[in-house]
Amino acid sequence: MDTCGKIAVIGAGPAGLLTSFFIRRHDVIIFEEHTFLGRPEHCTGIVGSYTASFLTRILGNKIIENEYYGIVFHTPHRKIELLLDKPIAYHVKRPFLEKKLAEKVQRLGHELILGTRVKPGQKLGSLRVGRRSFQFQKIIASDGAYSFLRRLCFGPIRNKIYGVQAVIKTNINDPKIFHILYTNTMPDFFGWLVPLNEEKALIGYGVKKHVYHPWRVIRYLAKKIRINKYRVKRFFGGTIPLDPPLKKPVCKRKIFFIGDSIPLTKPYTGGGLYGITLLARPLAKLLEGEITINNYLDIYSGYYKKFVIQHRLVRVVKKLGYWMPVLFLEDLYKLKMFEEYQFDEHERIAYKSMIVLPYTLPKLIFSTLRTR
Ligand SMILES: Cc1cc2nc3c(=O)[nH]c(=O)nc-3n(C[C@H](O)[C@H](O)[C@H](O)COP(=O)(O)OP(=O)(O)OC[C@H]3O[C@@H](n4cnc5c(N)ncnc54)[C@H](O)[C@@H]3O)c2cc1C
Q: For site-directed labelling of 252, which of 113, 172, 182, 300 has its Cα 20 to 30 A away?
């Protein structure tokens, strides 16, 4: 087995590339199994203001394709609209994000090797690249929801949602508003319509099991959102990991997990880019020796606790109806208590919801009885 003094990064997704971008004093080698960055495409690309400003500070405004001032929620009972005077969410161009990050990372002198699937070596901490095995100094496991190192160190991610979406050509009345649709036939997640501009949108949904043909579901969603004429350009999608995050995303002080391999995804919406922007810089600091492992684990544990609270809340929400939090959101919005930065901080919305509980509870009971 050969020894390599570099830090190996498995996967050139946003997690691997962003962490590599913050590593300046060590040599990094990034392995990506696909020959094209960001392909196959899977992500919708909706992020909140924190993630959007974090990414634009590094990559410039061109990575933002659209911004949204409102959300329309289609619950099984009625439509609820939230309109703000500041953008509530942004659309990040996804394969473009990887491309721009890769350019930055390569400019730092890091090596990016495309079309190379890395496999586990004989010892934990060694990797097989082609026919050769290497012992790397450190390994960043940023290889997504099916990470092989995650499986070896902690077991596989079990709870998943499959996201399917189509790019459609249509006429969008208001491209600054996106739609979230809850139906009883899709109890574990929701559907969405995300306009990219006046004539292009992403329409999609998340399911635990593929029961219906995607064409049928897209037709159903479009009808519900009242998109009458549209042309499907292409379908794409992928897996959204929804397990609670690892308590310690580190294995034997040698392998460091980030992104969907943890998974640090928001359990209600499946958004994973936020968790990556939170952790990439602290992880790079740890690998550079600027902070100790205990400092790093302290930082992580702050995020971990918030995500675990979100997971507990989502478990309750799933029992009552996935649309249920929207009723609280509506009351917070009416009382001007909903702020755009809470797009990412669902646990904060839950705390605030306690204030509006007396208003929302009767509506909640009424809606729940109607749904049963
Ligand atoms: C349908 C869908 C919609 C989504 N919408 C949103 C959204 O609106 N907002 C949001 O914030 N998040 C969204 N997400 C989640 C977001 O896409 C992920 O959280 C994010 O891409 C995770 O980044 P990552 O780098 O951890 O993993 P990935 O993006 O999966 O990247 C992992 C990379 O590792 C490579 N790889 C894997 N194994 C190996 C190997 N053995 N050797 C070499 N390379 C390997 C893969 O090819 C891949 O390029 C969505 C996800 C899906 C599926």
A: 113
